[in-house]
Amino acid sequence: MTPNVASLRANWNYPTSVKFGAGRISELADACRQLGMHKPLLVTDRGLAGLPMVKEILAANEAAGVPTGLFSDVQPNPVWKNVADGIQAYRDGGHDGVIALGGGSPLDVGKSIAFMLPQTRPIWDFEDVGDYYRRAESEGVPPIIAVPTTAGTGSEVGRGTVITDETTHTKKIIFHPKMLPSIAILDPVLTVGMSPKMTVGTGMDALAHNLEAYCAPGFHPLADGIAMEGVRLIREWLPTAATDGTNVEARAYMLAAAAMGATAFQKGLGAVHALSHPIGALYDTHHGLTNGVFLPYVLAFNRPAIEERICRLSALIGLENATFDGFLDWILELRVATNTPHTLADFGVGEDRFEEMARMAEVDPPALGNPVPVKAPELLAIYRNAYAGTLR
Question: pTM value?
């Protein structure tokens, strides 16, 4: 449906400086100096902290005259304690900037550490709801450099983070423009070490970001164009990246697609993310793989509002059957090819908490961006369809 003239009004932002290409991690010390960092704190997770890659990065910064501290107490689906401990490490070490390195969890924690340093209010006061971000102190947030080692969340070019509230077991999207990294280094060589399962999970996350952004209501042709190309790249390169992890070309295109998804979803997300967040909070599942489970069920639910758009997308990405059904079939085929679970039952999630999760999903901010309005009853129905495998 074509919007009326009155709706053709929006604000657009694409400000991150991106250094993209194999070997660009060698420019990290220069990037630190460019931002005035003399003693940054590198935030990563426990698994990466012990790898030669991180040790080499720290040694290279030291040799370049940029001594760098290390904080790695970051868990998958990070919680506030991870952020709080990182803030303490930052202050104790007298640091003056943050390098966030890793997948979505350490990137989100690193950005949150930097953002929360000058704040006097709890992090939950800055949830991505309305204009809550205006409550924050903008002065005193140190510069951030983001270095992704996975190709999924795109947090390196985003203004938000996802942190779990341990007291309520709910994931919260925290938003503020100051969370946007000043520089992102996208070096596909750093993603070569991802396992096939992690490659698929993060790839499904990138696909969900691009697809939900494209389908979100509202006028944002810049985001739409980026999202469409992101989906095309994922169709072409995710299977290769999953089966041949040493293919740097495939890794590069997937890294670009992930950044494109996060750039595009400033337009909005939808029910895929709203449904996934409660499962991640309660069952500690991988976020991207959870998104992959929900993709076809949410597509089918949203069909009345998005069929025309999906047909255009199907043609652009080169599907022989450029229809809604052809696109849905491609999603299903991609999931089979990448061993993504088809149902919540296959994923190890039971039915016992569906009603609770539907209420949680209803108040999750991405639910507001779904093309078809959703409340708890509709979200509960999708949970049940995803459990039973009911699509058409």
Answer: 0.92
